[in-house]
Amino acid sequence: MPAIRRLVLFDIDGTLLSAAGAGRHAIRQALAEAVGEIPAADSWVFAGKTDPQLTRELLEHHGVAADEVLVLIPRVLARYLELLEAHLGTSADAHLKPGVEALLAALAGREGVCVGLLTGNLADGAQAKLRRFGLTEHFRLGAFGSDHAERHQLPAIAVRRAAEATGITYAGKEIVIIGDTEHDIRCGAALGVTAIAVATGPYGMEELASHGPDHVFGDLGDTAAVLAAILGRTCE
Asked: Do residues 198 and 124 both lie within one domain?
């Protein structure tokens, strides 16, 4: 039987873990320092968006002029990263989602399987969140909000990096994106990826299923079932 090849790309927030609002608190504070309090930041939809996209949306909503937005985004995000570390350190309610550690252990060391990240987090922000739970060693590469502000651009970046790292050009259903929002489901459509949705974020299974993923799970707790969905066959 030919070896199974998979590039498995995980979203972070709502999929691997909950940072218990640390990111929202940090970006809200960074924005307040730059332009004053933005009340909309408390209720703005963060799920599935990149950090640069969120920052731009909130600045624009606050009425900041377009040319000033472009200047402020890198400044706000740099301050956000500084604040994020502090907020993560005080987030007592931060936690891993069910089944994450077991699934990552099951994927580790499989020939032809490359595990990475596909997330709207800035690369440094992603690493800070993973460090909080000791997960950094599980991910060989990633595509991040710091690579591109538009999430649909990230899968191709991850595929290119995987080819550089492994010598394998993953394509079509060999690319597996796992996430908790419609943005995760849809972002790889142009590449024909396998989309796995998990209802551990803000949306339930029915809502996620309406966006047409290949598989939907309540959480990642059934390691064998999720692994089978990733590898495309029944797994022991």
From this structure: yes
What CATH number is attached to the domain comprising 128?
A: 3.40.50.1000
- Determine if the pTM surpasses 0.85: yes
Chain centroid to Cα 136, Å, comes to: 14
In order, the DSSP letters of 28-50 are: HHHHHHHH---GGGGT---TT--
> Which residues form the domain of 192?
6-19+95-231
pLDDT in tens, 178-207: 999 999 999 999 999 999 999 999 999 999
Give the whole-angstrom CA distance, residue 196 versus residue 175: 11
Quickly tell me which residue has 């690493």 as its tokens.
127
Residue 125 lies in a domain: yes
Residue-wise pLDDT for 123-132, tens only, equals 999 999 999 9
How many domains does the structure of the chain reveal? 2
Asked if residues 176 and 196 have their Cβ atoms less than 8 Å apart, the reply is yes
